Amino acid sequence: MGKELSTREENYSEWYNELVVKADLAEHSAVKGCMVIKPYGYAIWEKMQQALDKMFKDTGHVNAYFPLFIPKSFFSKEASHVAGFAKECAVVTHYRLKTAEDGSIVVDETAKLDEELIVRPTSETIIWNTYKGWIQSYRDLPILVNQWANVVRWEMRTRLFLRTTEFLWQEGHTAHATADEAIAETEQMLNVYADFAEQWMAVPVIKGIKTANERFAGAIETYCIESLMQDGKALQAGTSHFLGQNFAKAFDVKFANKEGKQDFVWATSWGVSTRLMGALVMSHSDDKGLVLPPKLAPFQVVIVPIYKGDEQLAQINEVANKMKKAMEAKGISVKYDNRDNQRPGWKFAEYELKGVPVRIAIGGRDLENGTVEVARRDTLEKETLLQADIENKIEHLLQQIQDNLFQKALAMREAKTYHADSYEEFKKILDETPGFVMAHWDGTSETEQKIKEETKATIRCIPLNNKKEEGKCIYSGKPSNQRVVFAKAY
Amino acid sequence: MGKELSTREENYSEWYNELVVKADLAEHSAVKGCMVIKPYGYAIWEKMQQALDKMFKDTGHVNAYFPLFIPKSFFSKEASHVAGFAKECAVVTHYRLKTAEDGSIVVDETAKLDEELIVRPTSETIIWNTYKGWIQSYRDLPILVNQWANVVRWEMRTRLFLRTTEFLWQEGHTAHATADEAIAETEQMLNVYADFAEQWMAVPVIKGIKTANERFAGAIETYCIESLMQDGKALQAGTSHFLGQNFAKAFDVKFANKEGKQDFVWATSWGVSTRLMGALVMSHSDDKGLVLPPKLAPFQVVIVPIYKGDEQLAQINEVANKMKKAMEAKGISVKYDNRDNQRPGWKFAEYELKGVPVRIAIGGRDLENGTVEVARRDTLEKETLLQADIENKIEHLLQQIQDNLFQKALAMREAKTYHADSYEEFKKILDETPGFVMAHWDGTSETEQKIKEETKATIRCIPLNNKKEEGKCIYSGKPSNQRVVFAKAY
Q1: Does the pLDDT at position B1 exceed 50?
Q2: Complex ipTM above 0.95?
Q3: Are B122 and B246 in contact (CB under 8 A)?
């Protein structure tokens, strides 16, 4: 079993690709661009889903389900939306296969659809077409609906979790009587995402708004959370869109307000996806493998016995099972691995690779002394603790690990956040010490586009509540009143 | 708001179609054959998912996710599988749209796939192609994986939940070292489904095996649970398949057994779908609307205030909120509907339509007397109870309702289960008093097929542990040693 990973230093990109596969998170499938999410990876995604779903419900949202397929004509109804999505769609044209004369399976040309169906890349169009039937009056508003679903965006160059043709996500689609209410919803969901990223994933994020260039196709304003990976590249972790009345107009969704006047409905949409799995891996993991925050680890503690002979194993089993039970009573998830077909050293490496937050080893001497050896995955530190009251000690340790991972990631981000006051300085930073670069920009799409072409860096966002500061655009020299966040991005 | 339903007596089929829409469970979408599952319906499905998911995990299974798309060639690899599924597939042939010269959106013919992709109708092929990479030795077995997903089977005549082009389901796919172990798994999951149907849905089921005609395409043996609806038609509620080595052979999945010999892996698959929603509706509901078993109701209790003036409402609010809190502390889900824009009578009808198991009304006299009026949805009975200790009384009542629904459905099924000893009698029963018909059959596909053509009745299953009894086939007169279950089916 070859467990040697590339190191982050050698090749960060390779390290990531290998780690995702070796730690059993996901693998490439036989279908180009589509991945298989393996049980260990899916267990992390399930924990993400549960936490997010609860946050959505606590803020008044309900789940529903809309069709996978969208009639082609729906995409033409919102002009900027079709421009943004039409280039990357899976198109269903037929609904039957048949056996050819030579025995092979072929498409039945007589079963051609009158109108092609698009596999949803996002669901605004089909959902707003549905909302038309749900909304007559202000009494029907707001509609606060979320959907957990798979979506497809055809990608030529894919990477596991970060960019795949099919991915899993949630998409919230809400309808409101006023612009203010819709904007408040957009901001509320941005905050939900930021809280989730920081409190569950231990990934610090900058909240901001996108420039026109980077805005969602069909949105008035796109809010986002941006995170920074260990290699200094940015990763957009979630977006929340204020859609104005664009989709209501495209699908003719009006309501009677309290005064009895007809008006178009105001909309938001917001989503996070299995891309978060990539952000999680790249934020915390090291050359030995995954490092998982305890709140999202499929199991938080692994116990490994180190024994000679069946009699000693029996004694250790007794101690281990008692500890396991005590920890589980406190809501800690524990795996006891007393398989006899692998040596302790192999198991240690395996659980380091899998990022299990805490490892407890129990050996012969521990039996005599009433102790255990406790190793934490984040710092790789070990200590010997008394068995008594272990459940409370581990509970405390898990909280420490969760906090430490966030603080470490925050310190990393701060160390990799730079100010550039000239274009030369800007390019030097991007080349030599990549990270977030705070720089003045003249506010034009042209400048942003030129910088992107010349350096591959994009404006990740204009931070919310940004500090105002007079300055000159690093590219054009024109006046600017705030710095924005530039970076090369995933 | 037109709440009048067709009655079951008038037109059972119309009654069902109207009820699903009026009770806000689901509706037809703009995409032919695809449905929108509305929030109230989806909340029931979520409860089903949670209960099933726990049962799967308690029996050692883990979740994973496999691609939506399956290469066309995969379907050819298992001969009977392709015959069963090829006729009803959505086929993706292109991966891009473009804007035509006239401004319309058209398929980009230059973006044609070399090999067409099929939107999964079921995932045996893509999963067994993946398992090939996961299995080398007996140590890698068993693999006990489940997937929650959407699937597509092209349907010409669709009905909400019962038969839709896209539906939601779970599909378990397991791999084993021996046939015995795979058969034990198949039977275990059948039992899980039966327990779920009876204990959660309150729907009694017959466990059995399918005849060759009705077997899953690619299975050696298909086990099923069969339920009977109020109109005397059968509904297959879940299936569990013993696949033998068919898919392992098709995808060349071998393992080294303990003796080091290579053998093909043994397989099972098993699934239930949003079709269960249809079974739930048709089993218990009445002419006033849905009747939901408490264990699957989105909320189990609704409290409605009946008041004159704000002062009285304030007093009732206080009592209601206290009761709500006490019930919630016991895990009972409660909605307090004190909206002032609808009258109590409207609310009563609305919550009857929605199938809320228990309704509590509080009026002025109740305030004086320390009482409430409690109405149960299943029997429509009302009683006046003291407010004191209401949470325990309601908890007990919910259990009674859950039990009563099962007993009522069981009594209905028993009343509609007939024995036929001649083909004339058989046809008369089907015409006049449809239900399950227990009859002797000669064991041949030909006879089964002829009976189906002449009467539309099929063999729903051969019950497990069936009583042996000498007799003659009702159709051919040939000898038979057991009765099988015939019915017209959804």
Answers
A1: no
A2: yes
A3: no
